Amino acid sequence: MPDSPPAPPPSGIVARLRAAGCVFAEDEARLLVSAAGTPAELDAMVDRRVAGLPIEHVVGWAEFCGLRIAVDPGVFVPRRRTEFLVREAAALTRRAPDGPATVVVDLCCGSGAVGVALAAALGRVELHAADLDPAAVRCARRNVGAAGGQVYEGDLFEPLPAALRGRVDVLAANVPYVPAEEVALLPPEARMHEPRVALDGGEDGLDVLRRVAAEAPRWLAPGGCMLTETSERQAALAAEAVGSHGLIPRIARSADLNATVIIGIRPAAIP
Ligand SMILES: C[S@@+](CC[C@H](N)C(=O)[O-])C[C@H]1O[C@@H](n2cnc3c(N)ncnc32)[C@H](O)[C@@H]1O
Question: Does the CB atom of residue 102 touch ligand 1 within 6 A?
Fold first, then answer.
């Protein structure tokens, strides 16, 4: 017998979501129906979505690299395009299954989605993640903790254990990279429901990246790599920043995901 098609979502909910500007109103209605435990909970969820909360904040999770990542209100929602960074990192770091665990640091981790997806892709990892924002750290502790990793709170590398210096195989740093003046132009879901510290990368969007690139060579193992997402427009300057402290930079681009990633490899000896 062929599978019967899924039941259509309640038309009243679809209509409310559509009127509020939700482009994928039917899919979202289905998601909300499956996430809600009771009719009252469903009503409250629809109200929150109609009021403009990102769907991921309403249901409490986002799908990322095929995984369900918990995302608390006020925490950056992992974007589909960032899956490209994970793919590139995994392709660069495949190791023999009986070799030593790969040391992964997810800096500016937000929910911890990138580190958790890397752990799933790479198998045996020693996973560390860090973020400045206490809400992100609380959220990441649930996701990264479940993957066997540690989460630290503080500015960039400052809270990481010193014993990681020179040992990091993969440094994933999806830093904020929106130029300060362009934050106001972002869609309301980001502007109003994600913290400014997760978005604002300073005057040209590269302030945080420059700070990460300056310190990365001291933390990476020889042959280790740093990966950071940027926009296509910023890519040349971002690659220059990554290359200016001794890493060998390269720009990778996915047209499918509209994603640009800068990769910096640490050579055996750094100047
Ligand atoms: C663009 S979000 C990326 C979050 C996550 N990596 C992801 O891809 O879903 C940037 C994150 O950087 C954090 N952040 C910004 N400045 C930071 C700093 N100086 N030190 C540590 N984390 C910082 C923000 O709190 C936010 O969670």
Answer: no
User: Tell me, what amino acid is at 81?
Assistant: R
Element (H, E) at 127: strand 125-131
Q: Is the CB of 82 under 6 A from ligand 1?
A: yes
Confidence class of residue 98 from pLDDT cuts 50, 70 and 90? confident
156 with 215: CB under 8 angstroms?
yes
Distance 128 CA to ligand 1 centre (A): 14
* 159 burial level (CB within 10 Å; 0-12, 13-18, 19+): middle
Classify the C-alpha dihedral 75-28-86-214 as positive or negative: negative
Cα gap 254→261, rounded to integer Å: 9
Nearest CA to 62 among 46, 48, 80? 80
> Which CA distances in Å does 49 have to 56, 108, 157, 207?
9, 27, 36, 33
Return d(Cα 152, Cα 134) in angstroms, integer.
10
Q: Taking 70 as the threshold, does the pLDDT of residue 238 lie above it?
A: yes
Kindly give the number of the ligand 1 atom that is closest to the alpha carbon of 82: 8
pTM for this entry: 0.94
Position 1 scores a pLDDT of 57
